[in-house]
């Protein structure tokens, strides 16, 4: 019985600590080995409604960010399903948003992104699909400590199934492989935690 109580206590404290203190992960390490923290910024993007998207759009928002493309034949469809579920979970939270960046500006025009967004049935205010040229999108991916590149077949891209969680101060607080259910559950708990702060 004592062992059972101790196991429960350790499990409770472990879960509590994970939720109560999410690390700030948006930093670079300089040549001296020191951390330099930075905030996520936006400039030069256009959303699915053909409106500019900049840092003002993420003020007072907790958001999840990812990189995708609409013709993706591999990881994007299951990623999208998980993001739809997350959006529905937090549908009553006006401080929550999802920001998806297309990595295929050649094919993902604003009208294509608008149609893609409509198919999710999630309100535009909750889920922003962003367009910019490849150079600008790569700069943004660098802020999220990720990257992408086209495959030789000219159809698919090498890109990550991880999403980033960003707090109201525009700091990255977590990375999650959205193709793993346990990671999705952890992401939901961490979103709820940041929204409760």
From TrEMBL:
Pfam families per UniProt: SCO1-SenC
Coiled-coil residue windows: none
PANTHER family for the chain: ELECTRON TRANSPORT PROTIN SCO1/SENC FAMILY MEMBER, LINALOOL DEHYDRATASE_ISOMERASE DOMAIN-CONTAINING PROTEIN
Family named by the database record: Belongs to the SCO1/2 family.
InterPro entries in alphabetical order: SCO1/SenC (IPR003782), Thioredoxin-like_sf (IPR036249)
Protein name (Swiss-Prot/TrEMBL): SCO family protein
Top-level taxon of origin: Bacteria
């Amino acid at each position: 019985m004592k062992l059972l109580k101790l196991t429960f206590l350790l499990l409770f404290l472990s879960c509590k600590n994970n939720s109560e203190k999410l690390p700030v992960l948006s930093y670079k390490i300089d040549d001296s080995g020191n951390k330099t923290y930075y905030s996520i910024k936006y400039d030069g993007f256009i959303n699915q409604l053909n409106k500019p998207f900049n840092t003002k759009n993420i003020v007072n928002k907790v958001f999840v960010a990812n990189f995708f493309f609409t013709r993706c034949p591999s990881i994007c469809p299951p990623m999208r399903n998980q993001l739809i579920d997350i959006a529905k979970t937090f549908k009553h939270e006006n401080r929550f948003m999802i920001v998806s960046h297309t990595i295929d500006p050649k094919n993902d025009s604003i009208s294509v992104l608008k149609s893609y967004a409509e198919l999710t049935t999630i309100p535009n205010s909750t889920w922003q699909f962003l367009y910019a040229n490849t150079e600008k999108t790569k700069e943004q991916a660098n802020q999220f400590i990720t990257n992408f590149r086209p495959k030789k077949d000219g159809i698919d891209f090498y890109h990550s199934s991880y999403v980033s969680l960003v707090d109201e101060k525009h700091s990255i607080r977590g990375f999650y492989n959205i193709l793993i259910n346990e990671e999705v559950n952890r992401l939901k708990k961490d979103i709820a935690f940041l929204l409760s702060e």
